[in-house]
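INFO batch 0412 | record 1 of 1 | parsing
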Amino acid sequence: MEWARFRKYGRKMRKLSNDGTLSSPSPEVLSVIQFFVINEPLFPNLETLHLLGIEGTFVPFVPLFLSPRTTSINLSFKPNLPKVTVASMVITLPTLCPNLQAITLGSLRDDPTIAAAVSGMLLVANRNALRLLSVECPLTEEASEVMCKLPNLRSLSVAVGRETPLPPASLPGLAKLVIRCDNEDGWP
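INFO prediction complete | emitting tokens
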């Protein structure tokens, strides 16, 4: 009975936001939620997911909150999370949300596993839908080239590392650009 009531109101949810001040639900609560969302998303009409300060135990459950209608994702992670856990969640974002328009991934470790996952996410994302991209880790060379040719991108914030400098860009609609250089030798 209670789950049916939750489903009714869950369908009305359009935006889910946590500024990092709330603690994560217990793994037991999340396991129960996972059991009930086998056939459909928890919030089937969710358009925006904004979660800051995601803890390690919560990372595998983030996909439960996403739906094909989700177009905006803003996620930041607590430091020192297991890189494989974060990477495996990040790579699934475009599959769960095929029409993402805004992707913000903050507090990511500068790690090859994370960079590969974020790059893989960008490579399979709907390139025509993407309007905002903000990632705090360097991308692979292939992903950097794709990023610099996104046809409808309006806002870009990216880290550039020593291994993969920023390629020439063709971004006609770009209105905001932030580049963080992680190269000790100066600008790439």
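INFO post-check: The chain has one domain: 2-181.
INFO record closed
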